[in-house]
Model the fold of this input.
Amino acid sequence: MRSLEGAPTSDWWIILDFDRHVQAYANESESTEELGVILAASLAERGLLAHHSVGMLASGKEPVWMRPESGKHRRWEILRALALLNPGETRLANFLENAGPAMGHQATLIIITSSMESDWLKPLASLFWRGFTPTVILIDPTSFDAPSSTLANVGVFDKLLRETNISFHVVTRDLFKQPDIRPGPRGQWEWRIMPTGKAIPVRTPDDLTWKCLR
Done:
């Protein structure tokens, strides 16, 4: 969903929020959990193909902590970690607060979450002011049949993040209606990464080559 034009040379950190409390399930094959894994894998591949060092953090039952590295081995390390990931108990706000001090400075940060709780915006803002260039990809849980009455309005996040100049995009269950939304040689989401490090969506992929890992 994005092409990498004018991408910065900084490391990439991909953070996947796998807190079980914020996941929503439309059915056995369509969930915020599954879509988050797909997005994380696809973005990692795009970063590696653009010769970035890519790291990944995931707040699963067994947390994933992978410092940025480049090379073909990193792709398979990330895919294996995602294939084994199970939802955990750690809230995104706590995860960002705990991970922040060890991530260094001035890297591209991509957060994938379905959390509609606003408490994680404060530690995210702290990372922004420390020199990280963040992009938030919010998987809208209401599109997966989560009760909208208990969730904040997506527009609130949009307003708050744009006021701080943090790139923000919403994705929904409709992405599962695309023919194939998996990473692979022909199945790349295209991400345009701007010179500032912001990520902008362009189009979806069409390859199923990684599905055997799930």
Summary: The chain has a mean pLDDT of 78.
